Amino acid sequence: MPHFKIIPPFKVALPLCRAPHTSPARLSFRTFSTPSNAPNDDLPLSGVRVLEMGQLIAGPFAGQLLGQFGAEVIKVEPPNVGDPLRVWRELDVDGTSPWFRSIARNKKSVAIDLRKQEGRELVKRLAIKSDVLIENFKPGTLEKWSLGPASLHPYNPSLIFTRVSGYGQTGPWAPRPGYASVCEAESGFRYINGFPDPETGGLSGPPVRPNISLGDSVAGLHAAFGTKKRKRSRPGGTTVDVSILESMLNLMEGIVPEYDRKGKIRGPSGSSVTGIVPTNAYPCLPDPESPSVPSYIVIGANGDTIYNRLMNVVERPDLTGPAYQQNHHRVQRQTEIENAISEWTSKRSAQDVLDAMTKAGVPVGRVVSVKDIVEGQQVQARGAIQDVWVDGNGGDREEGWNLKMTGTFPVLEGVSSVPQWAGPELGHHTDEILRGDLGLTDVEVNNLRNQGVIG
Question: Side-chain half-sphere of 365: how many Cα atoms within 13 Å?
């Protein structure tokens, strides 16, 4: 059985291999300590250990998804500062971002300094006892630290490396830093978002971006999906290579094959979508409580029979019949159709439009803010927003507070959608993991903390 010796101050060398998995149906079957208020035996990934080494959004979002379905996620963070997301955007009364509390839900925080050799040895031992390692460093970083597949697979042949980067682990662009914003641009996604120039069909001015890090979240979804679906029959370790660029390409529908076969270069389309009519955002009368705020409603009536019902609601039955019956007919008459709908909606409130369209069976939705979402009837009925307790300093419930965050999606029958706990304080689980899982003594843990290896 292979061994390696931990450099001082450790005194005990632990084996670096483990018994192989006994069942091909799951990633792993082992028991870990979890908070007593967070039973997760019924979750589909219960018994799976994930070592999350990523920061900010893409890698941690993948870890969030795996943790929501029962995986034990151990998040490695640098001591003293932690994941930079802890202090991004709005900060709570304790100086921590509510966003971090959400994306780090159900995770255990271990503060280890990867700049120190002793810290890297600790992470190596944790990885050898894990099923999945998630990272979103620049390609080559783990190899520089001797924590890549070649270094760890000899000791843990079944370890899944889920690697998220801007452009993937290979290719001429692999070494480039790849943030979501630039990868969204390079994927062509930004080019189709904005308003078209009437002469060229291309962008009129700069592209419009969604006010979220879409590429990171899409890559995180791909990472979680790839991790779960990797083939059990493949011998040796597995790498899930997730590129933000390619994840965004996966959203581009028929753009590539249409270009290949028809030479079409799809451009921006404002608030509509190219080649599908009618589906758009239409103006309504302002809300009396906010008369200066524009009000819009989205109608999607591109189904043939739905279109006919819509035209009857907007009192334009003259825009039905053979010349408008199928989508390709309506595309040729888009301006006429859109103007007719806008003329009708602009004279009515959003609620009046919503009521009329719903009664007629026409898909319709308000353009709402987060306030409307949190207070929304459907969201509340489904438990899509949950209150999760955040302990105050030291865990005194009287000093804590509830934090609203999204629940667990998709909804699985018989499985609670309530997050088990909010993102923890930095290093909250360091001692628990090092003592309980790596077998370090109190003296060894204290020595590591005194030397700044752990926090």
Answer: 11
Average pLDDT of the residues in 214-228: 96
Contact yes or no for 65/220 (Cβ under 8 A): yes
Amino acid identity for residue 316 in this structure: R
The b/e string for 329-362 (b: 16+ C-beta within 10 A; e otherwise) is ebeeebeebbebbbebbeebbbeebbebbeeeeb
400-431 burial, b for 16+ CB within 10 Å, e for fewer?
Answer: beebebbbbeeeeeebbbebbbbbbbbbbbbb
Entry pTM: 0.86
Q: Which residues, 6 or more positions from 292, have their beta carbon under 8 angstroms from its beta carbon?
A: 286
* pLDDT tens readout for residues 262-280: 999 999 999 999 999 999 9
Please tell me whether residue 152 adopts helix, strand or coil conformation.
Answer: helix
Q: Is the pLDDT of residue 78 over 70?
A: yes
Residue 246 CA: distances (Å) to CA of 29, 212, 214: 33, 18, 13
Quick check: 278 and 299 in contact, CB under 8 A? yes
Alpha-carbon torsion angle 390, 392, 397, 403, nearest 10:
-20
In three-state secondary structure terms, 185 is helix
Instruction: Give the residue from 102, 25, 26, 28 showing the smallest Cα distance to 65.
Output: 102
Closest CA to 162 of 125, 144, 137: 137
Scored b (16 or more CB within 10 A) or e, 174-213 reads beeebebebbbbbbbbbbbbbebeeeeeebeeeeebeeeb
Half-sphere exposure for 209 (CA within 13 Å, toward CB) = 13
For residue 255, the number of C-alpha atoms closer than 13 Å in the C-beta half-sphere is 17
The tokens of 180 are what? 């979501």
**Cβ(240)–Cβ(161) under 8 Å?**
yes
- Contact by Cβ (8 Å): 297, 345: yes
Considering Cα of 384, then 385, then 391, then 396, what sign does the dihedral take? negative
CA dist., res. 9 & res. 183, Å (int): 43
With H, G, I as helix, E, B as strand and everything else as coil, classify residue 3: strand
Active site residues: 216
In this prediction, residue 339 carries a pLDDT of 97
Listed residue (219, 225, 237, 227) closest to 181, CA to CA: 219
CB 297 within 8 A of CB 353: yes
**CA gap 7, 167 in Å, rounded:** 36
Three-class SS state of 128 = helix
